[in-house]
Amino acid sequence: MKSAYLYPISTFMDEAVPNEYVGNFMESLESNVDFLNKNRPSNKGILDLIKYYRSVDAIFLNWIEDLPDKRGGAFQTLFFIFLVFLFKIRKIKMIWVVHNKISHYHTRWFLKKLIFNTVKRRSDLVITHSIEGLQFLEQHGVDIVRKARYFPHPLIRKTLPAPTNRTIDILIWGSMIPYKGVDNFLRFLHENNLGKGYHIQMAGKVSPPEYEKTIREYCNDFIHLDSRYVPVDELEQYMANSKAVLFTYAEGSVLSSGALMESLSYGLNVLAPDVGAFKDAREEGLINTFNGFNELMEKLDDFINSAEDISDRIDQFIKENNWSQFAKSVIEWMNENG
Description:
Elements: E1 2-7, H1 20-29, E2 33-35, E3 58-62, H2 73-90, E4 93-98, H3 109-122, E5 125-128, H4 131-138, H5 142-146, E6 148-150, E7 170-173, H6 182-191, E8 200-203, H7 209-216, E9 223-226, H8 232-240, E10 245-246, H9 258-265, E11 270-273, H10 276-283, E12 288-290, H11 293-305, H12 311-320, H13 323-336
Parallel strand pairs: 1-2, 1-3, 3-4, 4-5, 5-6, 7-8, 8-9, 10-11, 11-12
Helix pairs in contact: 1-13, 2-3
């Protein structure tokens, strides 16, 4: 059995909002991979890796592009670059999971480009959860594309409670930060006198505080914000009482979306921009997409009022793309590549 280290597993992760992807990733692979830091969250960031340097066969990296924004980010970044060369000396496999094209946070670009160029050259294998991810990597040379493989984001089927009062036309859920473009959508509604045309519920922690202030300026009797880490049972009730889930991502940095996959796990009707994993889901017949808010508004009424039941399609997709199938494919691929 191979021994591995997975980044990130941090003491700073809020237990009330666990990273479900990281947990499912490890659990699915653990019959073949021993994650040495699974039950050892660290407050040292990437520096924690040095403890395992002599005992791991592989390193799995998630969201490594955000490392410069962490505490002591500059030092952590330089230390990580040094570690990468040590990996090569010890022939430790580095597997990079590409969730985004670039960091969503427009800070410390020099360090982020340094990390990107390093993992691009030095990764042994690259995982992406969208076809656009392969196209993005292809722009950076054939060498990295040869090391990359597309795996659809695995799903787990979930059920919702019975609706109590299905009056929410549009649900926007998940952490709300500027790159997701929620403010752009609300501004569009306001400027086009549509701010009272739909009952909209936003559910998720908004940050930073000044961004929450911007969002609240557009709230009224029809547009509501529940800005907190919403407990699962309450979030599920929001979902059960909603006619549609909307994603408003504003930038082209996103490749995959955990919130999209979570929405599909519940069998929800989704509208989203035609990019990345959203586009892949549309081509699978699982969601509807739009290009720009004008097109969104052209589709919205029909989508809300006559959304079709796609439960059978989602069930078939999950049968083919669950975590067990993902793990089987990843292990076979790793074995093929030593």
